[in-house]
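Quick one, tokens below. Sequence please?
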């Protein structure tokens, strides 16, 4: 409690940051008096003889006696999982998001809850995707550039730059930290095919866990390995589990990308068969049409995904016509920050 005092000697009134370090608080600290005064809790600490007032609602909000982590794989209540029956997807008009703070905030809230969102009626203009990032945060630059052109190329450095279908995946699992948001913005899409699908990875993992606890455990207990070295001067490799849990068991991420999984060498010999069976079953769940929401982007439309949770896919395309998307990465911390800071105003 002493460490969490809100008085101006403990916390800066201008920025809220703590001014003291823990070793400035005497180790033999104790409370020698407590009473309610003016709807605040007044506490006297010895040996400092320091009197601190605590707002009652602050104490209530920060009470930790009810925190009981449940079983492995528990999901924060801010998320709502979904499948193909998802009725209302977070969808908003490009210019309404720019003009109206409340509209923007509701839409961001939806993206945080469902892990993806769509934007319609944007300009059919190269670089317009940056205007979406500008609504809440910053571009995450990588070896693919500040943004990348997703269209068919000769000698492609990545299978995304072909007309092939792409199984549902998360991007860049070979990177650590992984980009936590991706935006894909459509400029041309007259080719045959080229629809996009999104799949809730957390929902898929919950299904896997309900079906087979051993499968869930093996994919969260052991590291897979992902790599990318498709262009000169780049050799990315990361050892992470397909299902990522926080130390208290919270489900916090999925890494799934058939193109980038490398030889998995960190699963014990005796568990490898189970690991592959689990990986296969998870892939089947992910590929199940009952899990996916499908749309074909029109020029000027785009979507954003939480790349730690929602997988995206595309159907192959060919024939007359063309397809051109621009993509970029950004991060979820600023999306959350934009959402929660607007609650204060
Ligand atoms: N691109 C589109 O993570 C991946 O390798 C998927 C990424 C090349 C930036 C494609
Ligand atoms: C990607 C990707 C999908 C598409 O660029 O990461 O998955 O619709 N593209 O082209
Ligand atoms: Zn992708």
């Amino acid at each position: 409690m002493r460490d969490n005092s809100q008085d101006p000697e403990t916390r800066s009134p201008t920025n809220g940051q703590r001014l003291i370090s823990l070793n400035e608080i005497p180790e033999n600290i104790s409370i020698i008096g407590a009473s309610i005064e003016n709807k605040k809790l007044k506490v006297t600490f010895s040996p400092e003889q320091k009197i601190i007032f605590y707002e009652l609602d602050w104490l209530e909000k920060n009470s930790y006696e009810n925190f009981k982590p449940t079983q492995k794989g528990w999901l924060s209540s801010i998320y709502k999982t979904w499948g193909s029956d998802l009725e209302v997807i977070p969808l908003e008009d490009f210019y309404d998001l720019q003009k109206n703070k409340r509209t923007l905030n509701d839409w961001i809230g939806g993206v945080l809850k469902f892990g993806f969102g769509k934007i319609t009626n944007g300009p059919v203009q190269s670089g317009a995707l940056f205007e979406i990032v500008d609504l809440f945060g910053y571009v995450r630059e990588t070896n693919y550039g500040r943004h990348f052109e997703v269209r068919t190329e000769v000698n492609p450095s990545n299978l995304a730059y072909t007309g092939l279908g792409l199984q549902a995946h998360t991007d860049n699992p070979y990177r650590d930290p992984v980009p936590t948001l991706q935006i894909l913005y459509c400029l041309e899409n007259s080719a045959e095919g080229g629809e996009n699908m999104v799949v809730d990875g957390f929902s898929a993992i919950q299904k896997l866990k309900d079906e087979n606890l051993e499968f869930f455990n093996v994919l969260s207990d052991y590291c897979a390995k992902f790599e990318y070295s498709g262009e000169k001067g780049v050799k990315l490799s990361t050892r992470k589990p397909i299902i990522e849990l926080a130390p208290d068991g919270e489900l916090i991420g999925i890494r799934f990308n058939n193109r980038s999984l490398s030889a998995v060498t960190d699963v014990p010999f005796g568990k490898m068969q189970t690991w592959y069976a689990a990986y296969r079953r998870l892939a089947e769940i992910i590929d199940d049409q009952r899990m996916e929401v499908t749309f074909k982007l029109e020029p000027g439309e785009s979507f954003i995904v939480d790349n730690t949770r929602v997988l995206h896919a595309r159907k192959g395309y060919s024939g007359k016509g063309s397809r051109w998307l621009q993509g970029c990465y950004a991060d979820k911390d600023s999306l959350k920050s934009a959402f929660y800071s607007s609650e204060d105003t």
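Helices lie at 56-61, 94-99, 101-114, 128-133, 201-211, 213-221, 272-287, 332-344. The first strand starts at residue 30 and ends at 37.
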